[in-house]
């Protein structure tokens, strides 16, 4: 997916992969400070070591948030992009740990004309860890301008 796309430029079945990003302790601490979510599973090394994952995990909402940024690296915003329109079927499948590297894989699964000015592109989105395990999956809907027909 390239810069400057409009609704008509998307092809059902098209797949794209973002670059990667390593999750750091600073990411988790900054997110906890921003949201007020200081749950010990994310922020207390000793407490988390005794828990189900054996170590701290990143907030699911943090990983989703980072994924939205990684997706923008696939298709940088342009005149065609109008808005993030919605989200369906969000699942946190595997934990993401400090030091894990994630990337986003997206596939266009549907296009729906909204009106003569815009349409919704539906993207199956997976956040994938360095070991090829899916950590987060969801369906994103993005509103794009249509090319004006003259």
Overview of this structure, please?
- The chain has 150 residues and is of the alpha+beta class.
- The protein has helices at residues 25-35, 40-43, 45-49, 60-74, and strands at 15-17, 21-22, 81-92, 101-113, 118-129, 134-145.
- Strands 1, 2, 3, 4, 5 and 6 form a 6-stranded antiparallel beta sheet that branches.
- Strand 4 (101-113) and strand 5 (118-129) form a beta hairpin.
- The two termini are 25 Å apart.
Give a quick set of tags describing it.
single chain; 150 residues; alpha+beta; Thiol Ester Dehydrase, Chain A; 6-stranded antiparallel beta sheet; 6 strands; 36% strand
Q: What secondary-structure arrangement, pairings included, does this model have?
A:
Elements: E1 15-17, E2 21-22, H1 25-35, H2 40-43, H3 45-49, H4 60-74, E3 81-92, E4 101-113, E5 118-129, E6 134-145
Antiparallel strand pairs: 1-4, 2-4, 3-6, 4-5, 5-6
Which architecture would the CATH scheme give at its second level? Roll
How many helices?
4
Major beta sheet, specifics? Answer: 6 strands, antiparallel
Task: Find the CATH topology.
Answer: Thiol Ester Dehydrase, Chain A
* Helix content range: 10-25%
Mean pLDDT: 94
Shape: elongated
What is the CATH superfamily classification? Hotdog Thioesterase
Strand percentage, roughly? 35-45%
Terminal-residue CA separation: 25 Å
- Domain module tally: 1
Helix and strand pattern = EEHHHHEEEE
Structural class: alpha+beta
What is the structure about, briefly put?
The protein has 150 residues and is an alpha+beta fold. The protein has helices at 25-35, 40-43, 45-49, 60-74, and strands spanning 15-17, 21-22, 81-92, 101-113, 118-129, 134-145.
């Amino acid at each position: 997916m390239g810069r400057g796309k409009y609704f008509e430029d998307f092809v059902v079945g098209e797949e794209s992969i973002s670059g990667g990003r390593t999750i750091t302790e600073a990411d988790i601490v900054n997110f906890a400070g921003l949201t007020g979510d200081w749950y010990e599973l994310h922020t207390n090394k000793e407490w988390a070591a005794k828990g189900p994952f054996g170590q701290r995990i990143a907030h699911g909402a943090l990983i989703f948030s980072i994924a939205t940024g990684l997706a923008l690296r696939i298709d940088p915003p342009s005149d065609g992009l109008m808005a993030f329109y919605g989200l369906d079927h969000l699942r946190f499948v595997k934990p993401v740990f400090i030091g894990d590297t994630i990337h986003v894989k997206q596939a266009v699964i549907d296009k729906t004309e909204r009106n003569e000015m815009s349409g919704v592109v539906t993207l199956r989105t997976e956040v994938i860890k360095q070991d090829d395990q899916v950590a987060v999956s969801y369906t994103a809907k993005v509103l794009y301008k249509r090319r004006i027909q003259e």
